[in-house]
Please model this.
Amino acid sequence: MNLFRNIGRLAPWSLVGASLALSACNDLGSGSQRALTPIPPETLALMEQAGVTKESPTLIRSYKKEAEFQIWKQRPDGRYAYLKTFPMCRWSGQLGPKVREGDRQAPEGFYSITPGQMNPNSAYYLSFNVGYPNAYDRAYGHSGGSIMVHGACSSAGCFSMTDRQIAEIYAILRTSFNNGQRSIQMQSYPFKMTAENLAKHRLDPNIGFWKQLKEGSDHFEVAGKEPSVGVCNRRYVFDATSANGQPLDASAACPPLRRNAEIEAQVAQKAAADDAKVAELAASGVRPVRLVYQDGGQHPDFYARIAEVSRPETLVAPIEIALDEKIGKSRSPVVAMSAAKLAAKAKKESEIKVAAAAVEQAAVPKATEAAAPAEPVRLGGLASATDSIGGLLGFRREPTASEPAVAKTEPAKAEAAKMESAKGEKQEVAKTAAKPTTLKPGSAKPATTDKPAVANKPVTAKTVAGQAAAAQGPSHRADPAKKPQASLDGERHAKIAAASSGVPALRDALAPVSARP
Model:
């Protein structure tokens, strides 16, 4: 009789064990008083130290790679304070989002837990539904459901805790709901969003999705408040509202969004600093890797308690596969952005160095320009004399930007300077002609330091007038309406003869041309 009684007592627990093995996260069970377990005194002491109460709103952050489940509580000023971390007994699958029913993946993203998702009658001691799939998951057609945080340390796509842990977590959430909190946000991440983790996983196919999750994480860490979460254009948007009142549609383009400029600036600054750190780590030799789990993982606290965990044979250390970041292949957005910023910085530094070198070069005294060679002097005299002749003929040449403005404002002084240049040229030519010639050994021709002067050719008034007319073109001729042409020619011929008689360079340079008829 006692034997049958003992069998009767064991039968329900045998059914529970079978249910754990077959139903995975299908959360069915009978009601009990477990849901009324009070918050432990040591946790209440932590709340007092953090400046929060047991009734204040709650927020959850979970990390699969680190196998941590964090509880945060809201202070009176609206900012959240960290309360405590529960080591996760078991999570299943790989790093990355849940995509379909039966893939044994614990989901990643931003989820909302309501009082109706709390299950005091769970077959896994106690449990609550995380709210998968959310609007983002549905926009991509992800399937599955009934993803729980529960006890029994067994997981087939859920977040599994010990019975004692889930009793405490359940009590914390229950107390917040009883005080009026309508929903509790759960932020589920693949790992802590540090630069080190992002550098290691920069080539993972999920990096684009994880960058979206990091943006939400940055909003929480910068503002200290629960970020509002929306989905449009199949992307997460945080702390943003529609500017025109149009509701956000997860599968449609985003309407104009209104954001907090101060928070957005701080988030952008944090993201830039993290990206720079990722690039620095990559440049220092941190290899991109991919972690491959046999079936999820657990916190190191449970390494010595393997008997408590379901399917312990699958709980082995993940395999870390090093990836090659080959040139020419697509790179992760994190590395691409960081590389672009580093390239822009290097370009700016190069431009600064080039400008500094140019300034230094300009400051060097130009000693070689102090003494000009003789030939350019003669050419300068020729230009001055030609300009004087043009003035005598009634032609006026506009000065260039490099010439002094006195050519326009003080013509008398400019003309005197030109005549002095002509006299100096005459003396230079005389000195050149007086130099003795020497014969080089083995040469029949005399060698001189300067070129021999060109033989003097007669220059007439008509020759100069014809040459000047040919150079200036018909558009620069004097206006015949002012004075008869014969009278003008007579005056100009006399002036030309007087001006050119003492300028050898002008006689040498102008070849004789036939007189104008």
Q: What stands out?
A: The chain has a mean pLDDT of 75.
